[in-house]
Every structure is written in structure tokens, then in C-alpha cells.
């Protein structure tokens, strides 16, 4: 039998590459003659740059960059010929941010990576927008690329989510010079606008540390001001996806004149999913929690939709799921042990996944 294994990460417990390894191992243990093609999946979040670099046969570049809280740290991005692959999660990702506070976190590191990529000859830059800890509208990245933000006293400063309201003027002259001749594509699967009840501050800032509605409303007010003082750049804050990654979707369109595309579809097109799926018996994917949001642009939902179109059955492995019925042609298999705490399940995630696969695979084999 032929299997196409394309799991997302199980956030907090297993990377997508780890899930690929476990599932491939258990498939071959159950069916030694099986043909397995495995790809760690992403939709623009953590691991995006590394996965794309591997798919296209590029190399990872190591540089120093500013992390979300202002410290210089080692970072990486990918290069293949004149294309660079970056992910905001590498420098400003939520899991690696020790101080969760969207009032102070910055995207400056992303801008530094963009500058490094351009210095190395990149003419096309692909940026994964998922998993950020920031809410600065990309102002930090803009500063790293030469933009100047000044306060009422005319003093330049580095705006963060909590100081966007201080911006009195914006000069992008140097930034435009530095990015001239470079095209930008951002990968994101959210459709949120920049501001308002569905904007980045109200929807995503809570998980980044803004616990109270009052704090989120304050961030939204600052972001509205940011949109007003940058309106001369010609990008609408209401454009779907502008609120991705704390406003980085807006930054890409306004400051970089780039485009926003589905990270899930970009990945699936990159591996030639529609052709590959024609020649397999089963598609195996997975994510930490499979629920109603999985079909709203997330990678598992996109995999299921494309597999259904090709008439291929899908197995979804997940830590937990809601009570909604599984999509047509899809088997949903939870791996968590209900007798254990969430922390214990995280610690045993590899073991749990292996057990779940061992229990399910004989049934799949019996159907051939």
C-alpha cells in the first residue's frame, strides 16, 4: 500500500518532523512492503522556513537577529538561488518568548532577516506569518529595514504594540530603497482585519499576554492610530489577513507592497500534492486539536478537502477533537490518554501516537 504522510506539528509536544518519523516507523512495522512519502506540513507558522527550504533543495543560513524581547540571538532562514524563506516564528515566535507581553514584543528580528536575505542576493522573499508573540503591526521589522518613526518631539524610536500610539510621523524613504527590486509573499491562513473586534488585538493578543479586555482594547486603539499614520502607503487595514501575526499581514502589504496567500495551499502546491495523492491509498495527517476551525484554512482542513476531491481516504491523528462529526471519507483518531493530565500526555506524545497508529493500521490494511 502507498501512504502520503503530511502532519502539522502538535504544538507543545511534537514537531511535524517528529510526527512524520513516528508514523513512518509504525506504518513500516505494520506493512514492511509499504511505500511511504512523508512531508512535515505547515501553514505559515513554526518550521515553515525550514520545511520550504528542504522541499526546494536550498540551504539554511545562520545569522544573529533580535528576538521578540530585544535580545540578539542566533536565528536561521532558508535560501534557494534568489529566493529566501523566512518565518516570523523564528525570531518572534510565541513558544520561545519568555516574556509574553504584546505591549513590548517586537518584530525587529524579522526585518533584520529580510535585510540579510537581500544582502545575499534574494529577489523573492517568502515569509511565514504564523505563531508570532507580537502586536506591533510590523513596525519593528520596518525599522530594521530603514523606516523611521518619530514621536511628537521629532525623536526617532522603535515602536512596539504599546507605543504605536506615540507615532507622529513615518518616513519610508530608506526602506523603499533597500527593498527595491524584491518581491514579497506572505503565508497566512487567517482572514482577520488589522483592527476592530475581529482584528489582531482583540482576537489574538490574549494568548500573547494581554489577558484583560481593557488591555486588548488599548492595543487596538494604538493599532488604529498606526493604520492612520501609515494610510499614505495605500494598504487597507480591512484587507483580509491584515491582522495576521499581530499586524504583519498589514506590514507586508503596506510597507513591502507584497501579497498574502494561503500558507496551506502554498505548501501543498510546493510538494505537488494534487499529483501525488492520485497514486496513494491513504493520506495521513495530524494536528494538536482537530475541531471546527480545522476546516477554516488550517492545513488539515485543506488536506482533507483536496484528498476528498481526489476520492482518497484521510486519517487525522490529533491530541484532542470536538464532538463534530468527521468529514466524509475521514477517520479521526485521538492519541491522548484520558486518564492522564495534559502535561503527562504532552510528555508521552510520541508513545501515545505510536500506540494509536499501531491500533489503527491493521484496520486500514484489512480494507485493501
Explain how this protein is built.
This protein has two domains: 2-41 and 273-366, Glycerate kinase, domain 1 (Rossmann fold, 3-Layer(aba) Sandwich), CATH 3.40.50.10350; 48-261, Glycerate kinase, domain 2 (Alpha-Beta Complex). It contains 14 helices and 13 strands. It has helices at residues 16-30, 48-55, 88-92, 108-119, 139-144, 173-178, 200-204, 213-229, 248-254, 263-270, 273-276, 299-309, 342-347, 349-366, and strands at 2-5, 35-38, 59-66, 72-80, 83-87, 124-128, 148-150, 169-171, 183-187, 259-261, 282-290, 314-321, 330-334. The strands form three sheets. It has a six-stranded mixed beta sheet, sandwiched between helices. A five-stranded parallel beta sheet has the order 2-1-11-12-13, sandwiched between helices. Strands 7-8 form a two-stranded antiparallel sheet. Strand 3 and strand 4 (72-80) form a beta hairpin. The N and C termini lie close together (8 Å).
